[in-house]
Amino acid sequence: MALASVDLCDRSDLVNEVLESLGLGTHRLSPEALEIAARRVAHTPALWADLVPPDEPAVRLRIPLMRADNLEVLLLVWPRNEPSDWHDHGGSSGGYAVATGRLLERYRDIDGVRVLEHQLAPGSHGGFGASHLHDMVATGPGPAVSVHTYSPPIESMTYYARTSLGFVARAVVPEV
């Protein structure tokens, strides 16, 4: 069966098969386990490459690849220069792996006020805990593609305004 004809349910089964050897279990996953899962999916382009549009999208695409009780796997396609806006992941921990392109991540430091940043090139990966607050943007000459994993699956995201005193929540958006 050609992957181009695979529906979301079948694709979810394929992603699950690829992750099965990691022995992730059914509990809440650690940032380290989520990072490993994101890397495994990102390094298996047969699971997602057919979903990436041939032309740069006008807006960021959020494509679900798999969802279980304790794990969600998403493919994100980032157009150049469109920031994600400052947000958290509603209490979920996460992992990511950059498949193509370049991303810049700005994130809140542990003091709650300072902002740090790092460039993410293809092959970059990481994990983060439930209190991680950040903003990301594609900075390369073209779009970026990344795989993101969350545990538990995201129910909502909180968006923030950055002020001189730190970050202030401005909207909670359900994710379904």
- Summarize the amount of helix as a percent range: 10-25%
Number of domains: 1
Question: What would the principal axes of the Cα set say about the shape?
Answer: globular
CATH class membership = Mainly Beta
| SSE order, one letter for each helix or strand | HHEEEEEEEEEE
Helical run tally:
2
Q: How far is the N terminus from the C terminus?
A: 29 Å
And the CATH topology?
Answer: Jelly Rolls
Oligomeric form: single chain
What is the name of the CATH superfamily? Jelly Rolls
Question: Which radius of gyration do the C-alpha atoms yield?
Answer: 16 Å
| Mean pLDDT over all positions | 93
Proportion of strand residues:
35-45%
Broad structural category: mainly beta
Largest sheet: 5 strands, antiparallel
Number of strands: 10
Give the name of the CATH architecture: Sandwich
Low-confidence stretches: 1-5
Explain this structure.
This protein is mainly beta and 176 residues long. The N terminus is likely disordered. The chain has a 5-stranded antiparallel β-sheet with strand order 1-2-8-3-6. Strands 5-4-7 form a 3-stranded antiparallel β-sheet, with no helix packed on it. The protein has 2 helices and 10 strands, in the order H-H-E-E-E-E-E-E-E-E-E-E. The chain has a single domain, classed as Jelly Rolls (Sandwich).
